[in-house]
Each structure stands twice: as structure tokens, then as C-alpha cells.
Automatic annotation (TrEMBL):
Pfam families: DeoC. GO terms for biological process: carbohydrate catabolic process; deoxyribonucleotide catabolic process. The gene is deoC. Pathway: Carbohydrate degradation; 2-deoxy-D-ribose 1-phosphate degradation; D-glyceraldehyde 3-phosphate and acetaldehyde from 2-deoxy-alpha-D-ribose 1-phosphate: step 2/2. Its EC number is 4.1.2.4. It comes from Paraburkholderia acidiphila. It is an enzyme of class 4 (lyase). One of its GO terms (cellular component) is cytoplasm. Belongs to the DeoC/FbaB aldolase family. DeoC type 2 subfamily. The lineage of its organism: Bacteria, Pseudomonadati, Pseudomonadota, Betaproteobacteria, Burkholderiales. This is Deoxyribose-phosphate aldolase.
Length: 337
């Protein structure tokens, strides 16, 4: 039996695993360009490593259902469309409270309220409505900010947008970095920008979106990851979901290795969020295995790991129904919102 299948993340016939202990926020450190000079990425080695994630571990049957239930608790259930409405956002929040059909949870040995998503992610316009819809659930609202997705608004407006979302009740702020700073190697400007975003967040957690599909070069992705953590980011996130290429395992491996190096240097624990392109249960399992093997068990909890996703939840629910009934159902039987 494989290691993955003997280390289930939740107990199917009992209560879900307890969340990890409270994770202290990343206070950041002073900017140090020497940290960046030593960073190198061997692309062929990255590709060899990620190619094994789906082949070296087999997660089947009860163990697979357990891992997928854990994945649900790490989803930032997201709607970021131009035609969003308050009604759609409130339906999404209802799904976040009850992401899996009650009959499936009962068959797996869970009460209806035992599983919720990690957060709900919306534009600032809908933060107050989402906070109201999630009242009493313990599910935080995350707001995309700083001129999402391009990140080209004036800096002063970016700060005001963060402050407005926090005032409306957002507990997490997903900011977009200025890609120009990364593409031109202006690391000090990137540090100063993220540091100011961190200050504007107050008590809200900062998730820094690198837009890796625009940066492309793995060594620059590594450096940008390190700079954002130095500046105090609580999470680093791959993508907006709006780039031509979003989350990939290659990019994610580079970013989580930077999280590991930052922890070794500072002792601080920083979270990771792949976003965009994580749309099925098989891919979610590969990311969970990546986190377990590269960073350890604490990075399988929502305090340190999130998926930015919408359609992922429907496929996970389908897989759980197959586990319970032996039959696959149509996607329309598992609406997200």
C-alpha cells in the first residue's frame, strides 16, 4: 500500500481532521538583494520532479475520498466575472456553507455542516453581501484588489481599494503585483509596493498574486516569490485566472521551494494558492501530493493552502458520488452556484 493511501487526511467514519494550530502571520523582513542573487532554477529538473507527482503515489478508494474532502476545505470558492450579481454571490456563499450534498456526506459518515470551503473570493463590489451571507459560518471573505487582474491602477487607488474591502469585512485580500517590476528586475520597487499593500490590509491576510503566466521565466518567478514574502505576504498565489497560462505544477514547485527556503531563513510559515486551471479532482490530488511532499502536513490545511477555483468543486462532488454509489453523474447535478 502506498504512503499516500495510508495517511488519510480525514477519517471517513468520524469527525474531520482538526485544523492546524494557529499560524502566525508573516511579519516580513528587511529587503536584502543578496537573497535574490543566489536563486537559480534548473528547469529540466523541475520538469522531471513534477512529472512524477501523478505516478509515484496512488490514492484510491476511501483514502481518495478523504483527500478530496480535505481539498474542499481548501477551496477559495470564486466568482470573478463581469456579469456577477449580488444574487449569484449569495448563492455561491450558500454553496460554500454546504459544498457537498447532504446525502453524500451522510453516506461518508459526516454531518451536513462538517465540511465547508476555505473562503469565498469576490470583487470588492460584493464583499459586504458575501460577509452578510456567510455570517456565523466562520468562512472568510477574500477580495481581489489593487486593480485586479491587470494591476495597473494608480498606487493610491490600490491602497484605497484594499482599505475599502477590509472596512466592508474582507478578512483576506488577494493583491496583484505590478508585473513590470518583475519583468525589469526592479525588486526593491516590488518589495516597497507589497509592503505598503501589507500595511493597508491591517489585520486582513495578504495573498500576493504573481500572475506567473505573464512572468513566464522560472527564475523571475522564484525571485518575485521571495520578494513578496520578504515584504510580508501571508500567501503567494500563482495567477489571477485571467492569464493565457495560469497555475501549473512546474511553477508551483518553484514557488513552494521558495516558501521552504523562506521558512529556513526566517522560521515564518507562508501559504500557497494555485489559481486558474485547477478544475478537476485528479489535478487537485497532484497539488495536494506536491504540498505534502515538499512542505509537509501543515500545508494541507486551509491556513496554509488554498485552491482558487470554481468548477473544481463540481468535479470533486462527482467523484465523491462515484465513491458512494459506483456511478458517475452529470455535472449539472452538482451546481456550484
Amino acid at each position: 500500500m502506498s504512503e499516500a493511501s495510508t495517511n488519510s487526511l480525514v477519517v471517513l467514519r468520524g469527525a474531520p481532521a482538526q485544523p492546524a494550530a494557529h499560524v502566525a502571520r508573516n511579519a516580513g523582513v528587511a529587503f536584502d538583494a543578496a537573497w535574490l542573487d543566489a536563486l537559480r532554477v534548473n528547469q529540466s529538473a523541475v520538469e522531471r520532479r513534477t512529472a512524477t507527482l501523478g505516478t509515484r503515489r496512488a490514492v484510491k478508494k476511501d483514502a481518495q475520498a478523504a483527500w478530496l474532502l480535505k481539498a474542499i476545505t481548501c477551496i477559495d470558492l470564486t466568482t470573478l466575472n463581469g456579469d456577477d450579481t449580488e444574487g449569484r454571490v449569495r448563492r455561491l456563499c450558500t454553496k460554500a456553507r454546504h459544498p457537498v450534498r447532504a446525502d453524500l456526506l451522510a453516506a461518508l459518515g459526516f454531518a451536513p455542516e462538517a465540511i465547508t470551503t476555505g473562503a469565498v473570493c469576490v470583487y470588492h463590489r460584493f464583499v459586504a453581501a458575501a460577509v452578510d451571507a456567510l455570517a456565523g459560518s466562520g468562512i472568510p471573505v477574500a477580495a481581489v484588489s489593487t486593480g485586479f487582474p491587470a494591476g495597473l491602477n494608480p498606487h493610491a487607488l490600490k491602497l484605497k481599494e484594499i482599505e475599502a474591502s477590509v472596512k466592508d469585512g474582507a478578512e483576506e485580500i488577494d493583491i496583484v503585483v505590478t508585473r513590470e517590476y518583475v519583468l525589469t528586475g526592479n525588486w526593491r520597487a516590488l518589495y516597497d509596493e507589497v509592503r505598503e499593500f501589507r500595511a493597508a490590509c491591517g489585520d486582513a491576510h495578504l495573498k500576493a498574486i504573481l500572475a506567473t503566466g505573464d512572468i513566464r521565466v522560472l527564475s523571475n518567478i522564484a525571485r518575485a516569490s521571495m520578494v513578496c514574502m520578504m515584504a510580508g505576504a501571508d500567501f503567494i498565489k500563482t495567477s489571477t485566472g485571467k492569464e493565457g497560462t495560469n497555475a501549473t505544477l512546474d511553477v508551483s514547485l518553484v514557488m513552494v521551494r521558495m516558501i521552504r527556503e523562506y521558512r529556513e531563513r526566517t522560521g515564518a510559515l507562508v501559504g500557497f494558492k494555485p489559481a486558474g486551471g485547477v478544475s478537476n479532482a485528479k489535478t487537485a490530488l497532484a497539488y495536494q501530493i506536491l504540498m505534502k511532499e515538499e512542505l509537509g502536513r501543515p500545508w494541507l490545511e486551509p491556513e496554509l493552502f488554498r485552491f482558487g477555483a470554481s468548477s473544481l468543486l463540481a468535479d470533486i462532488e462527482r467523484q465523491l458520488e462515484h465513491h458512494v454509489s459506483g456511478r458517475y453523474s452529470a455535472f449539472h447535478r452538482h451546481p456550484v452556484a
